[in-house]
Design goal:
Elements: E1 2-8, H1 13-28, E2 33-39, H2 44-55, E3 59-65, E4 68-69, E5 74-75, E6 79-85, E7 90-97, H3 103-114, E8 122-128, H4 135-146, E9 150-156, E10 167-169, E11 172-174, E12 177-184, E13 188-193, E14 196-198, E15 203-209, E16 212-216, E17 219-220, H5 221-228, H6 237-243, E18 246-249, E19 255-258, E20 260-263, E21 269-271, E22 280-286, H7 293-304, E23 312-318, H8 319-325, H9 329-337, E24 346-351, E25 353-358, E26 361-365, E27 369-374
Parallel strand pairs: 2-3, 8-9, 23-24
Antiparallel strand pairs: 1-6, 2-6, 3-10, 4-5, 4-24, 7-12, 8-12, 9-25, 10-11, 13-27, 14-22, 15-16, 15-22, 16-17, 16-21, 18-19, 18-22, 20-21, 23-27, 25-26
Helix pairs in contact: 1-2, 3-4, 7-9
Length: 375
């Protein structure tokens, strides 16, 4: 297997696509699959056309994102591509449009199309629209079609302006869609970590619909949230929400983090991603981790689960972590990548949501790090 990484910060869309693709092809040669990440300063169709012209007949999957990084640099504006080539490597891509109300059906259709040739295993890399909503149901539909014998990874893109996202394959560019690839002929391992811990007693989500939580423990959601944190006034909600997300209990001490987004006029709370009704949840607080041990341990744990020599990595790093840590987020990324060694091929995104699995079941996470390592 051969791997290429290309990154360009050229402000001209066509030139950025050409530069990134040609750099990647220097490492991989003629590619089977290109994973393409674009920040939202570019016209995505122009970048895709440029990359397609360079990659020829390769399959392409990707999305827009808030930022990109490699082992050497982090960019808030740029185009990044990871190319894979080699004997026995195959890729299938699908671009599936969906609306909030038909997310489960869209996920089911997505899985059926990706597995139409009867594949029994592989890696499913997904880039859903983080603004359409119901990504949880989308992943449930995909999992219903594919099952536990696949590795799942990917993420959603946005720069926290909540204006637009895009998803893409070699077939074109769309919004309100999911772009996905089934990759075979590569051994993959995935991991997810978040670095938050419970800040008090559990709560019951007694009234929630989609991304809106109306009640916690039978009372207005913000009223309970404020009390638990010693009295939060509405004007300070955004600051507290950044530092104290909700953790939905996933059993055996695991949590799926849900990021509060805004306070609604009726004192309900909107979250970045859906919160299940009747779930057990906790208000979370950041765990002290000055040396970014969490990130390093995530990489070691993922490598230990990889039944092959590691050759490349794909990272989805939550953009809100970069806001919370400030310039220090680059130190956390360096800690994450350090166990991989100098010059290891890595493509990373500053993501709006991270897809990762607990017990082989894919979930969308917030404020987390998702890591895929292949060999």
């Amino acid at each position: 297997m051969k791997i290429g990484i290309g990154i360009s910060s050229n402000p001209v869309a066509w030139e950025a696509g050409q530069e990134a693709a040609r750099q990647a092809l220097c490492g991989s040669g003629a590619a089977v699959l290109g994973i393409l990440l674009i920040t939202d300063q570019y016209e995505p169709r122009a970048v895709l056309a440029s990359v397609r012209s360079a990659l020829g007949g390769a399959k392409i999957v990707g999305a827009c994102t808030a930022g990109i990084f490699s082992a050497d640099e982090c960019l808030e504006q740029g185009v990044g591509i990871l190319t894979l080539a080699g004997e026995g490597l195959t890729a299938t891509t699908v671009l599936e449009n969906y609306a909030d109300g038909d997310a489960w059906i869209a996920g089911l259709r997505l899985g059926q199309q990706l597995l139409a040739a009867g594949q029994q295993q592989g890696t499913l890399i997904c880039f859903p629209d983080g603004l359409t909503g119901n990504i949880t149901r989308l992943l449930e539909g995909l999992y219903n079609a594919a099952g536990p014998d696949f590795v799942y990874g990917g993420g959603t893109g946005d720069n926290l302006r909540f204006l637009r996202t895009c998803q893409l394959t070699e077939q074109g560019v769309s919004a309100h869609a999911v772009a996905a690839a089934l990759l075979q002929g590569v051994t993959m391992a995935e991991g997810v970590a978040h670095g938050w811990e419970a800040a008090g007693a559990p709560l019951i989500v007694t009234n929630a619909k989609g991304k809106i939580v109306y009640e916690l423990d039978g009372r207005p959601a913000f009223e309970v949230y404020s009390e638990r944190l010693g009295g939060v006034t509405p004007d300070r909600f955004a600051d507290f929400a950044m530092r104290y997300p909700l953790g939905v209990s996933y059993g055996f001490g695991q949590f799926v983090i849900r990021d509060p987004l805004r306070l609604m006029p009726d004192r309900s709370m909107e979250f970045v991603t859906e919160v299940p009704n009747r779930a057990v949840a906790y208000i979370m607080k950041p765990r002290a981790d000055r040396d970014f041990v969490l990130a390093t341990e995530l990489t070691h744990r993922t490598l230990a689960n990889l039944a092959a020599v590691p050759r490349f990595a794909l990272v989805n790093y939550c953009v809100s972590r970069s806001l919370l840590l400030g310039p220090g987020y680059r130190d956390e990324i360096r800690a994450l990548l350090r166990p991989l060694g100098s010059g290891f091929p890595v493509l990373g995104s500053l993501a709006f949501g991270e897809i990762g699995s607990y017990y082989q079941v894919p979930q969308v996470h917030n404020k987390s790090i998702g890591l895929l390592v292949g060999g």
